[in-house]
Specification:
Layout lengths: L1 H12 L7 E4 L5 E4 L22 E3 L2 E8 L2 E8 L4 H25 L1 H9 L5 H10 L8 E8 L6 H9 L7 E6 L2 E7 L6 H19 L3 E5 L9 H18 L5 E3 L5 H6 L3 H11 L10 H12 L4 H8 L3 H15 L6 H19 L5
Parallel strand pairs: 9-10
Antiparallel strand pairs: 1-2, 1-5, 3-4, 4-5, 6-8, 6-9, 7-8
Amino acid sequence: MLNKHFQNAIYQFVGIVEFSFGIIDENGYVIASSVSIRGERKLEIDFDRFRDSSIIVENGITFKPVYNRSKFEFCVYVENTSELAKKYAQILAASFSNIKQFYEEKYDANSFIKTILLDSILPGDIYARTKELKLDYDMPRIVYLVSISDQDEGVIFEILYGMYPEKGKNFVINLDEKNIAVIMEAQELQTTKQIEAIATTIISTVRSEAMINISVGIGSRVMNLRDISVSYREAQAAVEIGNVFDGEKDILNYESLGIGRLIYQLPIKLCQMFIDEVFKKGSIEKLDQENILTIQRFFENSLNISETARKLFIHRNTLVYRLDKILKLTGLDLREFDDAIIFKVEMMVKKYLAANVMKI
């Protein structure tokens, strides 16, 4: 289909360009031409040998290869080696690049999926375009948002594209230099364990092949193509919320964020009022690192005094003394469930306020 668009454009240049010209693929076969030799002619040229050249002159022909993200797309050739032929080759290459971009935006499934994710297509147009591209509209899908912490220069995109190459089934969308969306068919992904196993595979593969740290946000399972934008926004939120409340995790599932998801949606002013009302002014700041560690371990062990003391390698009475000290400083007895809940929420609210993140 793209070759047909190239050929139609070439017909418009015939009579303007003084020499025979056309387009070849990476193997040298002519895919569009100003003369009737398509598919019948192969031009022998080793593009790897001229990788750093913008213009190539070989065997009496001028070549202008076109690359996208270091990947060969196509090559324009002009059957002449004059300076004028070189200018023609550059002009034609720019024109055909624009044609290819327009074609991909109109017909390429990945470009279509990206417009849905970014809400840059009218809802009424989605179903029609889905039929045009022969995609399954009602297939359940999940969006995995790969967040990149290091510079990767496109390496991660290539890894993910190699992992999920099935066009029309799964999609790998390069959003920007720090975020890549993987849209997975979720017909077989029914449980949280199955859903998170995909994220585990992505992280382990990227780390083993590129040695780059990433985290993966997971949106909810949606039942049609139109709603993948919802799953994408949830995956975004999962990454942002996870970075605030649990920066050590690399798999962040929107449906498993718990209280953090609720706090993240509260107005900042309301959060500050909660802090001021629950605690005596400055009381929380009086807790030292020993107190903070004690509280964290106490929560991790479900408010069990004996188990917490064992994990901290201290006597049970020492732990009781520390909890009494925390009670005096904050007015909350962490041995009481209600007070423990209030303190847990307060600590999360403080993290939220300290992060100063943008609301979604």
